[in-house]
Specification:
One of its GO terms (biological process) is potassium ion transport. This protein is mainly alpha-helical. Helix content is 62%, strand content 5%. The protein starts with a helix and ends with a helix.
């Protein structure tokens, strides 16, 4: 069978699998790489080369850096300060939230920024008397626009920058994406302000994220503590509520408020059984008892992971509600150093990312366990598994074949028409499958079209980045869109109402504005 036909068949099956949403995207990506090897299209080394690609390692390192900012309370502090300044005005809240998520996205990725701000935005909406849906869809869409503010905004930016180098041109600068990102953020904000009240539906939330900002006060009241709530959760330490499970070795242990746990690193503040205080010299632990423990965050992390107790709210979650924790300065400094290294090109991007990730662990901004857990392995496997498909497109001539067909359709209309056609393909596919996978599929075609037209590949690659970010029409287009679906109570058909004018705007920017900044 012809190699081109095999490659296109693998692509078709992969797209169907992505769209069906019945097979995990990581499995689909791995199946693509394995299929390319099994059919003889690529060697074993080529099929697995994605897992050693610097782009993949850089993307993984950024998740750890993002975790450092979140775990040390930097994100919580930024959210509280900026959103708190907006008061209860709907218009002010929209402006502040959209600008904040756009800036955060540029530093810690779309999904990380939306996930970090989602609970805060819901709480702010409720306190302002607004349906959370009015703020959550703009939150997700502004994050997509913000992903074009800097190299670190999305894996797609990193991928196209590396693709430009491989095509014989130069890499995009760290802030160079902002030349198109700033107009996109401003346009997204203006369109939302003008049309949002009519196009963003008012829905009742089906799932609400918990508001842990007042958690200390709730526990203080439930356990009848005299300690002021601000002294229960702080930068250095906090509290944790645990339950004694059946067969725990702690059953039968005599306890009283104020005593240290057997490890000596935590203090028992209170014990309850069935909602009543367990006190007295003969009080012993039984299955189902709840304990309120106090100690340093590190000690809480360590001892609440013990199988002898079941933690109600992990300390790691509560710690994130504390603005600017003790290692926040380290996290901010590491981020600034990484950005400086990336902006100046002092070292390769992957080295800057890896050193920043290591520094987050060494300064204890994140633990080793947190670092591994923070990495979105689905994203890593998706990118690593789909890179070989791009290789196969170039190696077999499939990209040239598609490019020739595309050029045959547009004729002598010029590179801008070909650019529009490529962007249109990208935005259509991007509503159904991962925008990262979409861009990886279209990049070889774009490179081939640019070479055939004998023009610069830079406007094509930057336009693909913009088109890839225009994933507005469906909740399955990006994880960020899916994150806001439950808390916003959105239906599948709610996204396209505001999403369609934004998509048209992004498509216009990709087609007409991008070539002005990066000429053919």
């Amino acid at each position: 069978m012809d190699p081109i036909a095999i490659t296109l068949a693998i692509l078709l099956v992969a797209v169907i699998a992505f769209v069906s949403n019945r097979v995990p995207v990581g499995i689909v990506a791995l199946a693509v790489a394995i299929s390319l090897w099994a059919t003889g299209i690529l060697t074993l080394g080529q099929a697995l080369a994605g897992f050693a690609d610097p782009t993949v390692l850089f993307i993984a390192s950024l998740f750890v850096v993002s975790e450092g900012l979140d775990a040390t309370g930097v994100t919580a502090w930024a959210g509280q300060k900026v959103i708190g300044a907006a008061g209860t005005s709907t218009r002010k809240l929209l402006v502040y939230i959209m600008l904040l998520v756009a800036v955060l996205t540029a530093l810690i990725s779309v999904n990380g920024a939306v996930a970090a701000l989602l609970p805060v935005v819901v709480v702010v909406a409720v306190r302002a008397g607004l349906a959370p849906s009015r703020l959550l869809l703009p939150l997700a869409f502004a994050a997509h626009a913000g992903s074009l503010l800097a190299l670190t905004g999305t894996p797609v930016n990193i991928i196209v920058s590396e693709a430009a180098v491989e095509a014989g041109d130069r890499a995009f600068g760290f802030f160079e994406f902002g030349l198109v990102g700033v107009p996109l953020v401003v346009g997204t904000l203006l369109i939302t302000m003008l049309l949002g009240s009519r196009l963003v539906p008012v829905r009742a939330a089906s799932v609400m994220p918990r508001d842990l900002s007042d958690h200390a006060r709730v526990l203080r009241s439930q356990y009848e503590l005299a300690t002021p709530p601000n002294e229960l959760i702080g930068a250095e330490g906090g509290i944790a509520e645990v339950v004694i499970p059946p067969r725990s070795s702690l059953i039968g242990l005599k306890v009283f408020p104020g005593m240290c746990t057997p490890s000596g690193s935590l203090v028992i503040l209170a014990v309850q059984r069935g909602g009543e205080q367990v006190e007295g010299p003969d009080a012993t632990l039984a299955a189902g008892d709840t304990l309120l423990l106090e100690g340093s965050w590190d000690a809480l992390d360590e001892h609440t992971a013990d199988p002898d107790v079941l933690v109600v709210d992990p300390p790691d979650v509560l710690r994130r509600t504390v603005p600017l924790g003790p290692r926040a300065g380290w996290a901010i400094g590491i981020l600034a150093a990484m950005i400086a290294a990336l902006a100046t090109g002092l070292v390769p991007a992957v080295i800057a990312g890896l050193v920043a990730a290591m520094a987050m662990v060494l300064t204890r901004a994140v633990s080793v366990t947190q670092a591994y857990r923070s990495i979105s392995w689905t994203t890593v496997v998706l990118v690593a598994g789909m890179i070989p498909l791009s290789t196969a497109f170039m190696q077999t001539g499939a990209a040239d074949l598609i490019a020739d067909g595309l050029l045959g359709m547009v004729g002598d209309a010029g590179p801008q028409v070909a650019l529009f056609a490529l962007c249109l393909i990208t935005v259509v596919l991007g509503q159904l499958i991962s925008n990262t996978a979409t861009v990886l599929i279209v990049i070889p075609v774009a490179v081939s079209v640019a070479a055939t037209k004998d023009v610069s590949v830079l406007p094509f690659l930057m336009a693909l980045t913009v088109a890839g970010a225009a994933s507005f029409l469906t909740p399955i287009a990006t994880p960020a869109n899916m994150m806001v679906m439950g808390p916003g109570g959105f239906r599948f058909t709610d996204y396209w109402k505001l999403g369609l004018p934004l998509l048209v705007f992004f498509l216009a920017v990709a087609t007409f504005y991008v070539p002005l900044i990066w000429p053919f």
